[in-house]
Structure formats: structure tokens, C-alpha cells
UniProtKB/TrEMBL annotation:
This is Inositolphosphotransferase Aur1/Ipt1 domain-containing protein. The chain crosses the membrane at residues 42-62, 112-130, 142-160, 194-216, 223-243, 249-270. It is a multi-pass membrane protein. Residues 19-31 have a biased composition (Low complexity). Its main location: membrane. Keywords: Membrane, Transmembrane, Transmembrane helix. Residues 79-257 form the Inositolphosphotransferase Aur1/Ipt1 domain. The keyword Transmembrane applies. The lineage of its organism: Bacteria, Bacillati, Actinomycetota, Actinomycetes, Frankiales. Residues 1-17 have a biased composition (Polar residues). Residues 1-34 are annotated as: Disordered.
Length: 286
């Protein structure tokens, strides 16, 4: 009898069975890693939500710093109106008259101004954070910078919207107050009616279009430009803003985009410089 014959094979037991994980079996390490990643994402989302929520509250309540400056705001409104006439800009009243020919169109623009602006901005932020997080920091910073600069202008230059100027001068009516709905009809004091300059309805609509055109690659992405175009028509037809308000809002967004672009370039240079230096040292030592 050989040695091999003298050592019979033992039956597989819990101690001798193959303990290697079978193919497709979930890994405890992988599950823990996914759990930590999900927890980190949730925490980051919470901090970003709090940050933007604080920005929104500071902006909304900061605008009330100019409360009690109605006379100054009306004076500025008359000055802006006269300046636009000197510049031969299109008459806001002519735009409004086109819409007033249809009762349904008038209600539609009021609903757009009242209900579309804020939900559209929220939808954009959620979409960017969930689907295109690599651009989230820059989009967030553009919103913060543009909104912060807008608040400074609101404080330094209170401005009554066209709907609050004498109708005999402008030929405009307050479509929201007459036909509804109006964000200023609640009387809760939350909205400041004398902070028309700049228009963040237009500013944020431009940000939305910029993000879509920048992030997507489809040829249909340019349809997003319709958002700021439609918003401009709405805020003018409802007599909530002057043309100049939209121009200033657009310039603030352009400035914010350029500031974030320069900051991004500076960060890339700061990251790449040590790598280039090490490579140069390595080549020089050979």
C-alpha cells in the first residue's frame, strides 16, 4: 500500500470546504464602500442645500434694507424710463399691448412670472448636482457671485418697476394686480417691490441657458436660449422690469462666469505647476 493509499480523503466539512466567495457574490468591502460613498454624497448635498438656502434668505431679506426709500426708487424709475427713451429702446408699452390683446396670453405671462422662475432654477440645480456634478461647483459659484452683486445694486440703487410709475407717462398697467396672479398681492412684506435693478428673473434664466449649452453636446441644446428670451418678454410685458434691468442682469452673469473661469484656470495651473517642475527636474538629472 502506498503512502497515498494510507491517507484516505476526508469528506468536505465546514472546516475543509472552499471558503472563497463564489462569482457574483456581493463583497462586504464593496458594500461598505458604496455605503460610505452614498453617505458622503448625502452629506455634501445637505451642505450645498443649506448654503444655497442661506444665500436665498440673505438675498430676499437683504433687499428690504431699502424699505422706506420709495420716493428715491420712483425717482430712479423715472430717470431709467427717460434714459431708455433717449436711447430709443423699444417701448415696453408696445410689447405689453401685444399681449393684452389676448386675455389668455395675459394670464399666461403672469403665471410664467409668478410660478416658473423659481421652480426652473431649482430643477436646474437638482439636474446639475445629480447628473453633471463635475460642473456643480462652478455653477454654484456663478449663482452666488451674480446674486451677491445683484443684492449690492438693489441696496445702492433702489428702483421702482415700470408698473409703479405713473400710467400717464408709461402707458403701462400692472397685469398681475389686474388679471392675477401677482407675487405682490399677498401683502406679507416678503417681496420688495422697489428692487427692480437688476432683473434676476433674466439673470437666472441666462444661467440656466448657459449651463445647458455648456454641459450638453446635442445640437438641440441651443433651444435653452429660448428660456432667457421668453423671460425677457414676460418681465417686460408684465411691467415688472425695464429693458435695462435685463441688460444689467446679463452683465452680472457674464462677469460671474468670467470670474469663475479665471479661478478655475488658476486652480489648474496651481495643480499642474508642481508636476511640470518635477518632470523638468527629472529630465535635467538624466
Amino acid at each position: 500500500m502506498t503512502t497515498a493509499d494510507a491517507q484516505p480523503t476526508l469528506p468536505a466539512t465546514s472546516a475543509t470546504a472552499d471558503t472563497r466567495p463564489t462569482a457574483g457574490a456581493p463583497s462586504a468591502t464593496g458594500g461598505a464602500r458604496r455605503g460610505r460613498r452614498a453617505l458622503g454624497t448625502a452629506g455634501y448635498a445637505a451642505t450645498q442645500t443649506v448654503l444655497l438656502g442661506l444665500l436665498f434668505m440673505v438675498y430676499r431679506f437683504g433687499r428690504h434694507i431699502v424699505d422706506g426709500h420709495q420716493a428715491e426708487a420712483l425717482s430712479h424709475g423715472i430717470a431709467v424710463w427717460n434714459m431708455e427713451r433717449c436711447l430709443r429702446l423699444p417701448d415696453e408699452a408696445a410689447v405689453q399691448q401685444l399681449v393684452l390683446q389676448s386675455h389668455y396670453a395675459t394670464i399666461l405671462i403672469n403665471e410664467f412670472y409668478y410660478a416658473i422662475h423659481f421652480p426652473a432654477a431649482i430643477a436646474l440645480l437638482v439636474w446639475v448636482f445629480v447628473r453633471h456634478r463635475f460642473v456643480w461647483p462652478r455653477v454654484r459659484n456663478v449663482i452666488i457671485i451674480a446674486t451677491g452683486m445683484a443684492l449690492v445694486i438693489h441696496i445702492l440703487y433702489p428702483l421702482a418697476p415700470p408698473r409703479l410709475l405713473p400710467m400717464a407717462m408709461t402707458g403701462l398697467i400692472d397685469t398681475g394686480a389686474i388679471f392675477g396672479p401677482s407675487p405682490y398681492a399677498q401683502g406679507d412684506g416678503f417681496a420688495n417691490e422697489y428692487a427692480a435693478m437688476p432683473s434676476l428673473h433674466i439673470g437666472w434664466a441666462i444661467i440656466e441657458a448657459w449651463v445647458v449649452v455648456t454641459v450638453l453636446h446635442s445640437r438641440w441644446r441651443y433651444l435653452a436660449i429660448a428660456q432667457p428670451v421668453a423671460t425677457t418678454a414676460v418681465v417686460v410685458a408684465t411691467a415688472n422690469h425695464y429693458w435695462v434691468d435685463g441688460v444689467v442682469g446679463g452683465l452680472l452673469v457674464l462677469l460671474a462666469v468670467q470670474v469663475t473661469r479665471l479661478a478655475l484656470q488658476a486652480r489648474i495651473v496651481a495643480v499642474m505647476r508642481p508636476m511640470v517642475t518635477r518632470r523638468s527636474d527629472t529630465c535635467g538629472s538624466q
